[in-house]
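In keeping with the milestone schedule agreed at the kick-off meeting, the structural modelling team has produced records for the first pair of proteins. Each record is given below as a sequence line and a structure-token line. The laboratory manager (R.T.) confirmed that both were archived under the project's standard naming scheme.
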Amino acid sequence: MTSDSPVDQQGDPADEATKAAALRSALEDYDLEPEDRALLDGAGERVGTGPVASAGTLAIVGRPNVGKSTLVNRILGRREAVVQDQPGVTRDRVSYPADWAGAQFTVVDTGGWEVDVSGLTARVAEQAELAIDLADAAVLVVDASVGVTDTDEALVRVLRRAGKPTVLAANKVDSARAEADATALWSLGLGEPYPVSALHGRGVGDLLDAAVAGLRSRGGSPGTLTDPPGVRRVALIGRPNVGKSSLLNKLVGTERAVVDAVAGTTRDPVDELIRLDGRDWRFVDTAGIRRRIARTQGADFYASLRTQAAIERSEVAVALIDSSQELAEQDVRILQLASDAGRALVIGLNKWDLMDPERRFYLERSVEQDLAPWSWAPRVNLSALTGRRVDRLVGALDLALAGWGRRISTGRLNSFLGQLVAARPHPLRSGKQPRILFATQASTRPPRFVIFASGFLEAPYRRFIERSLRESFDFTGTPIQISIRVREKRRR
């Protein structure tokens, strides 16, 4: 413990629970929002934000303004995707968990695909094509009231090259009389067109039956979580030529990934199920991120997006840094990308064997300074090429995952904060001092805390709370999210 965060040892759980109940009762004197009450009653708690088992990923694609987002909302059973009666509203790939007839899957809404476009429209089309590449099956949405267009035919060629099961949705068929319009879509060569009305829900059940059958025919893919329970998913991330593929090969024991001295050899995420210390781990080798994703082009653009998707599907990221070189801006950006995604983090200092003892001493001091914002992440000094200290990686992964999933009881949390504030209260601002009224841990994976306060808690004090939480409860290897909800006392 540091001298500025004195907290006593574990107290009596019954006494802590009693104090927490009293604080919770006193909170009723303040104006609370419905979401506050849901959180306090436990309905707002999340078990975790980590990946779950899925039957696969279903991409909804089509040209602009054919009703893709409306169909996504119909599949979800709620208005989640933004819908507006004009083309180009959806620009990014947006994923949502969905289920149908007992099958859980991920549905991906995409922007309108167009051929021979440039600028922002071209980026939207690239996102749609990437969604097709990463998906296990696709639904092509066509406006039956308009009929087949040149753009529809061009998109069909893209789908055929991808080789994914594709179901044809003839949208905007709002009546039995309009079903005749759907028959003209047989000319696309994708088989039977399913007449649907995404707006009114007509025919969507039959369409989903066919789509789920397409997902099941694929039997899962590297992009879906079909591993047995207990298999942890690890993303290997870092800038190009830092040794990610070499590390994967060393862990597997074979040349699983292509390794070359030319930076950027890896373009697509490479998955491999590896048994380490008697347990199975799913490792994903990703492409190196050169610069900001928005500034990349061509194959690098696709590779960067796939790397970002791999991080989001993982539970813990191993960020490799070339210890033989100075810490680069890309290294910092990649570390931030993993922590912003809420994933557990382990830092691997690779090529450690290339340095002499004096250089290692100065590197340790430099690392302490440069990686200060991620001082909570365990570090492993290793050599992916020779395998030196690679065996220490599992211990670091276990440590990070344990912190990622750690939960503090509400009683213990409020007792801890009470002692913390008593020892070091928030500074006065304009003659007022904000008080912490109540706190609860809203979720794990990553740990997220919600603090109810009578006034705004400034950033330095929030960092002090985060640092104290780490020191007292061992949140090693995980980002911590702290939300402050300022509530005023109800006027009588």
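The second protein of the pair:
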Amino acid sequence: MIPFDNPQSEPRLAWLGEGSSILLSEYLERHGATTVPREERLSAFERLQLPPAAALSHATVIKVGQFVGAADLVVGTYELAGEHLTVRVRLIRLDMGRLTPEVIERGLLTDVFDIYERIARRLRGTIAESPPPVPGTLLTSPQAFELFVKGLVAESPKMQRAFLEQAGKAAPADDRIKLSLWDVHSASGDHLAALDAVNSVPSSSLQSRASRYLVALSQMQVKRYEDAYKTLTTLHSEVPSAEVLNAIGVVQLRRGASAASGRAVFFFNQASQTDPADQDYFFNLGYGYWLDKDPPAAVYWLREAVRRDPADGDAHFVLGAALQQTGATAEAARERELAGRLSASYEGAAAVADAVPRGLERLKSYLERPGARVDSTIASTGQRDQAELAVFHLEAARRAFGREADREAEQELRRALYLAPYSSEAHLLLGRVHLRGGRPAEAVQALKIALWSEETVAGHLALAEAYLAMQDIAGAKDEVARALALDPSSVEARALRGKIGQ
């Protein structure tokens, strides 16, 4: 669910862009749909380097939908004339790549709940109204809902707290407000206040499991590791979860737990088996083995991490350090070089054990819904020739790119790169897909890896185009110069140099 646009840019209703997403998600859920939580959407925006509040093209929101594994996207606008609100909504069917007819609902601004409830019914094709909301929750008070959303989108922590505390007084039975206050306090570094905010969520609440996970995260921040361990193991005994297993591993790592209570790498391994699509669990596993002074095991699992995210600078750097310890000096140097290209933190870093920072372990800040994103093609490749299969997917990607089927091309390239993470051709083509899709920052990352794998004129020129799209003229000039150094007669390089000069 993407925040709605307001063509009028009406300041009075700026909050309703995010509010539309939250409200329609709520009603769709009440009519039996499964929606992507706001936390996952924000995480996707962050990973894709998108501003959380900007108006986005359909191509970009489709990319977000694909990233979170959605089947449909809901996009819409709202306008206010006097006290009358008009909301227009359409679905983007990702499987067919088409827009559905527009759904339009109108009403008084004071009837905002009814307007979005009617839209949800029409989108779902249902007649019956949703069950009445629980008294004292956000859906019983338009004022409380407005305060809640304003608290989510306010720019300063002080304003966020003020709006959310007012919302809590207006809707005291809605524990989502307490979870949002936890976010604000945690972001401000006030972990005791964050702990207090979610400790009061009752066990009967729908938010009980989420709140207890956040309790454990706060307990870890204030170094109450035994309390965090007990909270998390209780959660895991109720419903197994990759996020919880991973968090237990982080607790064990930070407190230096003995084997009697379970080594950190044991829990990281369990998390990676529970959700084999998430590179963070594989990174933690490799990093945990590095801290356990087991470089061969660290190398193995960090390679699995970079399979899933070839642009992970931390993983490449720790992998380089582990390779150095195993005697693979040349390969270690290349991994450190790539880490330096991907992250300024590692530029020129030394290849010694002390250069690997502590505290790189990764935690999930919320409980995700279950579901792996590694497709069946990738999952079934264990007994097949990976190099041959990678070539097959790369060729399929080239054909799809040629007919401008960029979504299909990207899917094929992800499969190829899972099998061959350092394929220069695959990264180059992925960079071009991102560039054509209006995602130059992602293109830069892919093209840097392509050039690290194999320096080519085509790679430098594509990277120059990406820098141009980001208004980085100096970066574009540097890449054109490198292309001309490789091939002084390159017509394409000279043409691009002329374009930059103009």
